[in-house]
Hints:
The complex is a heterodimer of chains A (339) and B (338).
Chain A: E1 2-7, H1 12-15, H2 18-35, E2 53-59, E3 62-67, E4 73-75, H3 81-90, H4 92-128, E5 134-137, H5 143-152, E6 158-161, H6 166-169, E7 178-180, E8 194-199, H7 209-219, E9 220-231, H8 236-241, E10 255-256, H9 259-268, E11 271-277, H10 283-293, H11 301-309, H12 312-324, E12 330-337
Parallel strand pairs in A: 5-6, 5-8, 6-7, 8-9
Antiparallel strand pairs in A: 2-3, 3-4, 4-10, 9-12, 11-12
Helix pairs in contact in A: 2-4, 3-4, 4-5, 10-11
Chain B: H1 2-11, E1 20-21, H2 27-30, E2 36-37, H3 40-47, E3 51-54, H4 61-70, E4 74-77, H5 85-97, E5 103-105, H6 113-124, E6 130-138, H7 155-158, H8 162-178, E7 183-189, E8 200-206, E9 212-218, E10 225-232, E11 235-240, E12 253-258, E13 273-278, H9 283-296, H10 306-324, H11 327-334
Parallel strand pairs in B: 1-2, 3-4, 4-5, 6-9
Antiparallel strand pairs in B: 6-10, 7-8, 8-9, 10-11, 11-12, 12-13
Helix pairs in contact in B: 4-5, 5-10, 8-10
Amino acid sequence: MKTVVLDRDLVEMEVKPHHLLAEYRRLLAQGVEERLCRQLAECPCPGCRGDRHTPAFPRSGLEYRQCLDCHSLFVSPRPSEEALSSFYRDAEAIHYWRREILPATREARRTKLFRPRAQWLLDVVDEYRPEARRALAAGYHNDLLLEELHHLEQELFEVVVTNAAADIEFAGQQLPGVRIQPTPLAGLTALGPVDLFMAFDILDRCADLEALFAAARTVLAPGGLLLGTTTLGSGFDVQVLWDRAPGVYPPERLNLLTVEGLSALFARHGFEALEFSTPGMFDAEEVQRIVREHPEANWPRFIRYMVENRGEETLGALQEFLQRFRLSSFARLVLRRLQ
Amino acid sequence: MGQIRRRVVEELPDLELAGVCDQFLGAGQIGPGCPYYQDYRVAITQVRPQVVFVCTPNRFSPDVCIHALEQGCHVFCEKPPGRTLDDVRRIIAAEQAHPGLKVMFGFNHRHHPAILEARSIAEAGRMGRVLWLRGVYGKSGGAGRSFEQSWRNDPALSGGGILLDQGIHMLDLFRLFCGDFSEVHGLLSTCYWNIPVEDNAFVVLRTPSGQSAQLHSSATLWKHTFQLDIGLEEGYLSVQGLLSKSGSYGRETLVVGRKSSRGQPAAVGNPREEVVYFDQDLSWELQVQELVRCIREDLPVTDSSTQDALKVMEIIDTVYRQAQVPREARITAAGGKG
């Protein structure tokens, strides 16, 4: 298994302008309270399946719990996949994201997030599955990624995009070899076999991770790869900021597994990790920002000292340390389906 | 090395350890249930193995390899493949006389995880062609003066110094990324240790298509070092550290840097980098698995083959021959001014 550390000239504001994000999250919270707080279902820890947990904190009318075994953070009780699919198609917050945030950040996202991700994805395929012919993209925000993949590689594998809002994401856009087919989890197995299962922006927001991994295992050919990204509950900013962490909000962050919880999940479903990295770039920056915004809060003494007395260089070095030891809250995975 | 090979043989399900031959260990040190011999000829005659792993000092390797081939055994031989170029040619002659048998050499660095990933990226071609290589591989020689007593520094047993012992791995990797070299320029020195072979070697090479490579192989690098830098048209790769039993070469990493591209003018001269950390070295297992595959499927050995051994020994032989010519004569021959 390998771990990847990234060094890149990226500041959070470029891809997440705070003034726009604040409005987005306000609309999201409002939408969750109005549409997603009914007909909820209890669930065990989505990482280790343990049923021992403790209340963590409430958000937008939903309750985060912490698993007492693998320490993952997760929403329970939670809305169904159907309710979430409907939400991602037409909630006001989602419209706002598409109308305001995406256009404002599109080029920064393309250059600094999706182009490197496309390069990484092609490198992974070259190394572990050079014969790849078919891929299934189950997650969200695939349009820029697929554009960049096509820019880098003319003869790309065929891709089926299945998220609930895929037809909206790709409206008016046609890429060769890309098929748009919104499909519920239960229907994914009919789309196999595929060589690659792309799970970007889905693992943390999926209502039923157990079903997602079962579907991935079924739809993937033996030796096929699952490539994904997710937010981790064991990451530095989540652990330090906890109930004040801006990145912890439903419905996009229903599952904030720890490294241990996520490892238990993929091992249980017959996957081995080829890469498990936390190449996040914003933990330290996020902690600095929130600690400064809330000086009255009871922050750990060391964190407060560091934020008040150290500058950018220290934060950069800390971020690199977090990446190197899998302690950032953004995870990147390459899993191989075992025989 | 024999102990490492034994572990691999015992761990791989395709292989079964049939016996151990060692002149210096006693049967008691080999462990129960394993036939033990002091003479490799007796061992091969009595055990009739399918594969012989040759983990001997360089002086003995060619004779053991050739005997094993003559007895109908496939051969896995540690690097270097003998003391001289002529040693490799003798092994090749024996191989050609037994075309059904496989011979592989222990260039296991090819299978280190960072090298595998660097190769995959380079061969995919998206970073353009390889322009140049720069390798540093060295060790301290150990505490006190014991290094001076090692068989590795006895020319009668080893045939050469640090270049033949350790630098050979880096030269093999150079060939892996660039192919064969048509120009070889070397400089040897014995600057610290009291040994009759080189403790430092500097080698500069060039391929017919103009790719250049530079090696520093050293027994006076007090901090153990492995670094292979690969310059490509669209970026660079740097393998640093090497997973090893002692861990003294540092954690194995691959730095991937991509030249700045559209939309990233600020990154000129300081591009985005990825550092990949590796946790597990399966190089020993992967190489032997490949030999087993070649034997089972009767495929020609294309990885760490006798031709690979020959080509890398040709480079080393050229450097050693250059070193024997007086400096003034070389300068005159090259048309330089000294």
